[in-house]
């Protein structure tokens, strides 16, 4: 009998789900007060897909749109395009690997609002792409209210992204954020002017954006670049370049091949 080969991305997601379940069992045993939560959130769920839908629904529900209704919307998105779940898995791995304050996958999944906000955006983006724009705006609004993260549903974000702390992150309608980026709190991907044209920044892959940085206008930040905390970026940034200041200027090259993974923010030359 032939063996069905699972796509590599799906096997990675399944392995992560097994790891998440193992952590939940360990914590449920070590901390009995949380056993009911851990069973409901992880151990009683069939997959990462269902666990994520259940977890987000509990947070995003309102009196007008209860958790059951929200969960149905989320599951319909995940079933229609499983890559949304794969991106959620990649984001979870990114946080675990890059954030020294993150001690387990479970901690990020349950408690990191940046992760929850990013997954809410991913659902809103799929709704936007399906021309369900009013519902997409609903999820954007809930994310802003709950997590203080405001990402327009039309923005295009890659996978393997980490929001560190996340408070105050804003991304405009035509902004792009590439795979593997790390974004700290207070970052704005903003536009200039009032026109409806393409007016927001395009961020490449593996870019590190420091806390409070403002990147404004239809400019490009190349792969592997670093943006220092508090910088105001108004011009294109070349690949693997470090910029700092107001307005931001080049201050050197990168610390490594992948600054977003390294998270090195000492820019001393």
Key features of this structure:
disordered N terminus; 9 helices; globular; alpha/beta; UDP N-Acetylglucosamine Acyltransferase, domain 1; six-stranded mixed sheet; five-stranded parallel sheet; serine acetyltransferase, domain 1; 2 domains; 14% strand; 269 residues
Can you tell me about this structure?
This protein is globular. It contains nine helices and 15 strands. The strands form three sheets. Strands 3-6-9-12-14-15 form a six-stranded mixed sheet. The chain has a five-stranded parallel sheet with strand order 1-4-7-10-13. With 269 residues, the chain is an alpha/beta fold. The protein folds into two domains: 7-149, Orthogonal Bundle (serine acetyltransferase, domain 1), CATH 1.10.3130; 155-269, 3 Solenoid (UDP N-Acetylglucosamine Acyltransferase, domain 1).
What is the element layout, followed by pairings?
Elements: H1 8-30, H2 35-43, H3 48-60, H4 67-80, H5 83-98, H6 105-111, H7 113-129, H8 133-147, E1 149-151, E2 156-157, E3 162-164, E4 169-171, E5 176-177, E6 182-184, E7 188-190, E8 202-203, E9 208-209, E10 214-216, E11 220-221, E12 226-227, E13 232-233, E14 242-244, E15 249-252, H9 259-262
CATH architecture of the largest domain: Orthogonal Bundle
CATH topology of the largest domain: serine acetyltransferase, domain 1
Oligomer: single chain
> Considering DSSP H and I runs of 4 or more, what fraction of the residues is helical?
40-55%
State the CATH superfamily name of the largest domain: serine acetyltransferase, domain 1
- Which value, in Å, is the CA radius of gyration? 19 Å
Order of helices and strands: HHHHHHHHEEEEEEEEEEEEEEEH
**Helical stretch tally:** 9
- Please report which band the strand proportion falls in: under 5%, 5-15%, 15-25%, 25-35%, 35-45% or over 45%: 5-15%
